[in-house]
Design goal:
The protein is of the alpha+beta class. 16% of the residues lie in helices and 33% in strands. The model has no long low-confidence stretch (mean pLDDT 94).
């Protein structure tokens, strides 16, 4: 299967403003977008591309005063399989974890695993460690939070989402991450493109999605507390400790978002986006 994906984001800047953007697919060995999913700017601007501390493809530039559009248009091969379920994947003792997993054990800006430790152990500490316990956490978060785009709030943390019981996909992910870390299970926050391929109609408007990856059985595995079901066509853009590490765009000054469009669709049946 081939997935056509991309985005268009328009901004109006009152003055020259530095910008950092993470809108390209995460580099995966042996898998590349065709054409390469480079970030295109209108008007064209000088950019600097680098990998951040988590390996995410990152672009920085200075936007001039006025209108600027950021866009990505690409296609990528996908095996069409659902997110794997590995029911026998075990949790690891902290002393047995690889060093790469250790940063994803501790509290972070939006995932206060220290503040939610008592709740996590009360709710899940009695469960058998391993995949089934992580799935139980995912089930709980999925049912605990009510989704609504009107509930989006840039400052809401995992503890806030737990108390208010409402939010958007990033809030589901943050609460899930915090609970897992409180139980000494390495968990990282992910953002990217998520298709509706294979999902029943009607489909909502395209958007970026937040999900998580949990370290079990010697590997990282996808858990998606917002949807709480395996999905097809998941294209990772960036991963980090929480949303503070991987904003899609980080603008260092005031601006107004004037355009926002995201797509991830089966290239065989969809019409290319202009």
């Amino acid at each position: 299967m081939r997935i056509r994906f991309g985005c268009e984001m328009g901004y109006d800047f009152p003055q020259p403003t530095p910008v950092i953007a993470r809108l390209n697919s995460f580099p995966v060995k042996g898998l590349a977008a065709v054409p390469p999913d480079v970030l295109t700017l209108d008007p064209p601007l000088p950019v600097r591309t680098f990998r951040d501390v988590f390996g995410n493809r990152t672009v920085r530039f200075v936007a001039p005063a006025g209108a600027v559009t950021l866009s990505v248009h690409a296609e990528i091969d996908d095996d069409g399989a659902l997110d794997p379920v590995v029911a026998d994947a075990a949790e690891h003792a902290v002393e047995d974890l690889p060093e790469e997993a250790l940063p994803f054990l501790v509290a972070s800006r939006y995932c206060e695993s220290d503040l939610l430790s008592d709740e996590a152990w009360s709710l899940f500490g009695h469960l058998e460690p391993g995949w089934s316990r992580v799935q139980a956490i995912c089930d709980y978060v999925h049912g605990h939070i009510t989704f609504g785009y009107g509930y989006a709030h840039v400052d809401r943390t995992a503890a806030d989402a737990f108390a208010s019981q409402r939010g958007v996909c990033r809030d589901y992910a943050h609460l899930f991450v915090a609970f897992c870390r409180a139980l000494n299970i390495p968990t990282r926050y992910c953002t990217g493109y998520l298709s509706f391929i294979g999902e029943p109609e009607p489909h909502g408007p395209g958007d970026f999605a937040a999900w998580t990856e949990v370290y079990l059985g010697g590997a990282w595995h996808v858990f998606d507390p917002r949807n709480n079901a395996p999905r097809r066509g998941r294209i990772l853009v960036a991963r980090g400790r929480d949303a503070a590490d991987v904003p899609l765009t980080h603008t260092f000054g005031s601006n107004r978002l004037t355009q926002f469009r995201v797509w991830a669709e089966d290239a065989r049946t969809s019409v290319p986006s202009d």
